[in-house]
Amino acid sequence: MSVRxxxxxxxxxxxxxxxxxxxxxxxxxxxxxxLTGLTPPAVSGLTKILLExxxxxxxxxxxxxxxxxxxxxxxxxxxxxxxxxxxxxxxVSRLRMGTVNLLGKLLDTEVVEISSxxxxxxxxxxxxxxxxxxxxxLAAQGTRIVGIGVAVTGLVDTDSGISRFAPNLGWxxxxxxxxxxxxxxxxxxxxxxxxxxxxxxxxxxRARNSGSIILVQVGYGVGCGIVLPKLGLLQxxxxxxxxxxxxxxxxGGPMCSCGKRGCLEALISERAIVxxxxxxxxxxxxxxxxxxxxxxxxxxIVRLAADGDEVAQxxxxxxxxxxGIGLANxxxxxxxxQIVFSGNAFALSPTTRGWIEESxxxxxFDQPKFKFSNATFxxxxxxxxxxxxxxxxxxx
Length: 396
Ligand SMILES: [Zn+2]
Fold this sequence. Notes:
By secondary structure, the chain is an alpha/beta fold. It has helices at residues 3-24, 29-36, 40-52, 120-139, 176-184, 193-204, 264-268, 270-283, 298-306, 310-334, 345-348, 350-363, 381-394; strands at 27-28, 56-61, 74-78, 83-90, 94-101, 106-113, 144-152, 155-157, 162-166, 171-175, 188-192, 213-218, 222-228, 232-233, 338-343, 371-374. The protein has 13 helices and 16 strands. Strands 6-5-4-7-11 form a 5-stranded mixed beta sheet, with helices on both faces. Bound molecules: zinc ion.
């Protein structure tokens, strides 16, 4: 075996041990042998390296957990302190940044309001400044930052780190990765925001170890991230997987931002639901908007529906029916174990969720076996996801 192959195999075995301890821990060395298929000498040698690096920590003998006749085994778990990563999500109106440790815990966060006037250079400058501040702070605590992950809306070429088209940001062919590497010299990953949200949920969220998940984001846009057993995060052959919002649900329906008609996004996005509500409520007798039309949001419409506003109820029921059709199509093709929602109150509130679930079940081919849940990290789902991507690339 060549030296290169030996070191690749060692790297892959080390990653397998970290992953296994993270997902199944705390575990003993003999459990690690069974779970990874590695020999006892290999597990002993590799765990020694990981303990020295501070990636693993030893809990000591745990009473009540005997293996055979001997004394209780010492259990290993992942230590959160050795490494961390920076996650950045570039949203339409906010730049969210955060530091995430090896256990998926969000340590520090910062939010900056942005607008259509914010330039690419501004975003890079803010991200680099946050990285440097966190690097200095964590170095004092013995924690090393392994790199930075960046979540961008729209089409992202993950291999090159180029944001190909982010209509909501007005970006076309922005080489986010190059700009950050030039300034930081650290590993950088750039990917679609919703795909990264799904990755974070699968590694560190409530849906961890659930097998296959579809995370659906409903807000300004609509998208999904799919994580499959053994294959991991689905990127697609040309980095375009997950454009759930542009599936045709109503042929000949309303015009979508992509230039086609009847896409799911044109029916259930923030703008679509608010637009439909305004149109119907203004023509309804005795209608009285609680806020000026330009300040109306989906969250307000969901509240109105809960308070008995019939127009709000009918608009949201209709949107829920459309989303359910889309979800059932995804379920029929992918057969996930979990559907995770992220975004505004349309996807997250119990009232609308009931309607969405009803419509999904009504259109599924098989008896539904999946579970519905809400994304674990709420407004920081993209931040945790993008940091997870870089932790996964460097260590897991
Ligand atoms: Zn579309």
